[in-house]
Design a protein that fits this description.
Blueprint (H helix, E strand, L loop, with lengths): L18 H8 L2 E4 L2 E4 H5 L12 H9 L1 E2 L10 H20 L9 E10 L5 E10 L17 E6 L1 H9 L1
Antiparallel strand pairs: 1-2, 3-5, 4-5, 4-6
Helix pairs in contact: 4-5
């Protein structure tokens, strides 16, 4: 599955993110205790909050994570892959660019492409954001070890470079 990422030229544009995701980015970021959350997603989170997670990193990933819109795409084929990745990169890079300066820890984005749907036969995408802290285990320890899905980790620097391409 990770070989999928090698078949697509990576670049990002804000306009590639669906409107609903650009609205999320425009609402900004908020701090909840020591967690850094997208404001629009925090208000829609239905879990018990920070107390249900062992650390802030996993709380951030849960609140900030969303499946990428795909209802208007074909159910298979290269155009589905390209559109999902383009939309996910546009959203992830735009959101990373909007992280307020002065955060004590860098914010990372994770984009995953994997088989989903009722029969695990449809390519789906998911995007989430969390911080990278020296005193907390990372959200993903080894991106390359994922074999059942294509997983990409983006830093704020990566996002800036992809938006410039």
């Amino acid at each position: 599955m990770a070989a999928l990422l090698k078949t697509v030229e990576l670049h990002a544009r804000e306009e590639d993110a669906p409107d609903q995701f650009r609205v999320v980015v425009k609402a900004g970021w908020v701090t909840d205790g020591d967690a850094h959350l997208l404001t629009a997603l925090k208000s829609g989170y239905s879990g018990a909050g920070r107390t249900e997670f062992a650390d802030a990193v996993h709380f951030e990933a849960a609140v900030n994570g969303r499946g990428m819109m795909d209802h208007d795409l074909p159910t298979s084929g290269p155009e589905r892959l390209t559109a999902l990745l383009r939309r996910s990169l546009g959203y992830a890079c735009t959101a990373l660019r909007s992280v307020p300066p002065g955060r004590p820890w860098p914010t990372l984005a994770y984009i995953s492409l994997s088989a989903g749907g009722l029969d695990d036969d449809v390519l789906t995408a998911h995007v989430t954001f969390c911080s990278d802290r020296p005193d907390v285990p990372p959200y993903v320890a080894d991106v390359e070890s994922y074999e059942q899905e294509a997983l990409m980790e983006l830093s704020q620097e990566d996002a800036a470079a992809l938006l410039r391409k």
